[in-house]
Amino acid sequence: MYRQIVAGTDLSKTARIATDRAAWLAGALGAELILVHAGSDPGPHFKELAESYGAEARVVSGNPAEALIGEVERTDAGLLIVGSVGMRGARRFLLGNVPNKVSHHAMRDLLIVKSDPPGHEEGYRSLLVGTDGSDTAMKAVDAACALAKELGIRATIACAYEPPSKAELDALRSDPNDPIALWQQDSAIRSIPDEFRWRIAGAAQ
Hints:
Layout: E1 4-8, H1 13-29, E2 32-38, H2 44-53, E3 56-60, H3 64-75, E4 79-83, H4 97-105, E5 109-113, E6 126-130, H5 135-151, E7 154-158, H6 166-173, H7 179-183, H8 194-204
Parallel strand pairs: 1-2, 1-4, 2-3, 4-5, 6-7
């Protein structure tokens, strides 16, 4: 699924949680792992860390978020992994400075590892993906299901919604096709809309 994975690190304790997860995932998928440090050369410790994972170490100058995104594009990696805490300890954003920026600008798949506090498991035993049925959401469903299949774990697809108001229900009932009445029909009569049938079936393959 992913032939190359890029993981960012500033060699902090929280970043180590993310790189440990990246190494596990790369091993499980048989992918090449590339560790990227943005800034000046941190010395031999960085290379030693990469060697312990069987990964390649790369030092890239510049803004951390831009450096990571640029390296992913340059290497044509399919997945970028970062920790949930900013790589310089920034807490101005919920996700941290670097992961927040990366999540808005990365053009490849992104995994943000929970690192403060860290998770309790080395790998993943199950996967949950949310969808609203839109094209972009279904891309996430497809990717999540493909990843779950590769890892041999269960994927659960969830669709959350807010119940319609009385005014909205009245508007729906004025529809000649009355979707509420159709939904309340016996399941033997009611049919799943074609759009959702093929999307759900495709994700479950």
